[in-house]
UniProtKB/TrEMBL annotation:
SUPFAM superfamilies referenced in this protein's UniProt entry, alphabetically: C-terminal effector domain of the bipartite response regulators, SMAD/FHA domain
Annotated region (Disordered), positions in chain: 193-218
Bias-annotated ranges (Polar residues): 197-218
Segments forming domain FHA: 22-72
Keywords: Phosphoprotein
Organism: Planobispora siamensis
One BP term from GO: regulation of DNA-templated transcription
Any one GO MF annotation of this record: DNA binding
Domain of life: Bacteria
Protein name per UniProt: FHA domain-containing protein
Length: 218
């Protein structure tokens, strides 16, 4: 078989991976459906970029995703890697071999230039991923609008531009893929709230508690 594929352990089925995004889970709408009850309806996705392939755990499962037995959030895959989704497993094949450290995450060489408002939208989008609680999903357009006190339509327009800037293809879980990309690039990260902020009444959930790199004024 030409191109990357996954061989499902339980059935022996060999499934080719799509050119861009391949979703995997127990739900009816995924590209690769697994029936094991430990698998979430939407568990993870495979992403192809040129000759490289990586897997992203979508944070929607208590059982998580593992590569060669190690829990991951996002991991570049090599030929022969075993990927586990809960108790279900599959082996990756068809990935060109290269002298490439498997521990290194695949990242873009440079992040796009962002306006101040785009920074605010990304900060609000990724806040659930940066909290102390388990990451369930990034903020919705409505939640971002409420957070920034703007209209939901305005937020959706900003998200569309951000999808283009970060080259997030159309498809399911686009917000999750954008949030994963931004966090993986280190563009959004939590910073401690200094005592003076608490004393002056600055809300801990405000964008002031998050640092975003590579910004410019809108």
């Amino acid at each position: 078989m030409e191109g990357p594929f996954i061989r499902i352990e339980d059935t022996g089925e060999v499934v080719p991976l799509r050119p861009e995004i391949t979703t995997i889970g127990r739900g009816r709408g995924v590209d690769i459906r697994l029936t094991d009850p430990s698998v979430s309806r939407l568990h993870a996705e495979f992403v192809r970029r040129g000759p490289y392939l990586y897997v992203v755990d979508l944070g929607l499962s208590r059982n998580g995703t593992r590569v060669n037995g190690r829990p991951i959030a996002r991991r570049v895959l090599d030929d022969g890697d075993v990927v586990s989704f809960g108790a279900a497993r599959g082996r990756i094949g068809g990935v060109p071999r290269e002298d490439f450290a498997p521990e290194v995450e695949l990242r873009r060489a440079a992040a796009p230039e962002l306006t101040r408002r785009e920074v605010d939208v990304l900060t609000s989008l990724c806040r659930p991923a940066l909290s102390d609680e388990a990451f369930v999903a990034p903020a919705t357009a409505r939640e971002i609008a409420d957070d920034l006190v703007v209209t939901e339509a305005a937020v959706k327009q900003h998200l569309l531009r951000l999808y283009q800037k970060f080259r997030i293809p159309e498809g399911t879980n686009r917000r999750t893929r954008l949030a994963n990309e931004v966090v993986a690039l280190g563009l959004v990260r939590p910073t401690p709230v200094v005592p003076s902020q608490r004393a002056t009444g600055t809300p801990e959930s405000s964008p002031a508690t998050t640092t975003v790199g590579n910004r410019r004024a809108s």
